UniProtKB/TrEMBL annotation:
Organism of provenance: Streptomyces peucetius
InterPro entries (UniProt xref): Glyco_hydro/deAcase_b/a-brl, NODB_dom, Polysacc_deacetylase_ArnD
Domain NodB homology: 61-261
Region (Disordered): 1-52
Record's compositionally biased regions (Low complexity): 23-40
Protein name: Polysaccharide deacetylase family protein
Length: 287
């Protein structure tokens, strides 16, 4: 998409009433095992994970909600002018509802909000993954995003990891989400050198620029299947109804018997089932 999406905040826990999560959803120990990755693909391409394998027949009704913290490299003046690339209420909601989540963070966002990046990245409820430094497109066309040169892709990914870690995030996993979900073989070959697993999704929330929280919630609820991976955003300016939608999505999915997990847990579930997950993706989203 033309405008970058961004933002998660690390504000305190807001009191409120929420459905009780299952014990398995409790925040993991800081000493949790290393995040799993997938084996490289043919021809030196980075592997792509979209959802956990399996149909839920074994009782593994899990789903991963992921949130893209987007900010492009040239949006500093907009942030300086007062535009907010964060969403404190959304992170509050995830904490209140006790929803383990994976935040795909751009390096530029981590530089803009280092305290928030640190708070999210040291909270055991969350894990932080890489969403590029610049939020420029790794293939084109891609929602009007500026395109990064092929020879700069690897450096961009590494620069994002460096910015995230400099901010103080510690729960950082070796996963990468392409801006807009746009990629080709050249992009997969470039990021493979960073030893990352590319992570896509099978459920598009439609929260980018949405104004109807009920419609976003319905789209997610209609799309989720056992092992699903949903893409959402956390920004006040470009995804203003996500928090409200999440407050509807979470209790309803729990009522249906789903358990919320991080991407690393979903990938571990696939490995335990003897399959590394479903590769490929449903096509780009305005992430």
């Amino acid at each position: 998409m033309a405008a970058a999406l961004a933002g998660c905040d690390a504000s305190g826990h807001r009191p409120g009433t929420a459905p009780r999560p299952s014990p398995a959803e409790a925040a993991p120990s800081p000493a949790a095992p290393a995040a799993p990755t997938m084996a490289p693909g043919p021809g030196g391409l980075a592997p792509v994970f979209t959802r956990a394998a399996g149909d839920g027949s074994t009782g593994a009704k899990t789903v991963a909600l992921t949130f893209d913290a987007d900010m492009t490299a040239d949006q500093g003046p907009r942030a300086a002018g007062g535009e907010r690339f964060d969403n404190p209420a959304l992170i509050d909601a995830l904490r209140t509802l006790k929803v383990p989540s994976t935040v795909f963070m751009t390096g530029r966002w981590a530089e803009e909000y280092p305290a928030q990046a640190k708070a999210i990245g040291t909270d055991p409820l969350f894990e932080v993954a890489n969403h590029s430094y610049s939020h420029y497109a790794f293939s084109s066309p891609c929602y009007g995003l500026p395109q990064i040169a092929a020879e700069d892709m690897l450096a961009d990914v590494r620069r994002a990891f460096a910015a995230i870690e400099k901010a103080g995030a510690r729960n950082v996993v070796p996963y990468f989400r392409f801006p807009g979900g746009c990629y080709d073989d050249a992009a997969l070959r470039a990021v493979a050198q960073a030893e990352v697993t590319a992570v896509q999704w099978d459920v598009v929330s439609g929260d980018a620029f949405a104004t109807d929280a009920d419609a976003v919630a319905e789209q997610v609820l209609d799309g989720v299947r056992p092992g699903s991976l949903a893409v959402l955003h956390c920004t006040r300016s470009a995804a203003p109804v996500t928090e409200e939608a999440v407050r509807r999505i979470v209790p309803e999915l729990r009522r249906r018997g789903y358990r919320f997990v991080k991407v690393s847990d979903l990938m571990r579930q696939s490995a335990a089932a003897g399959a590394e997950g479903v590769s490929g993706g449903p096509g780009p989203d305005s992430s």
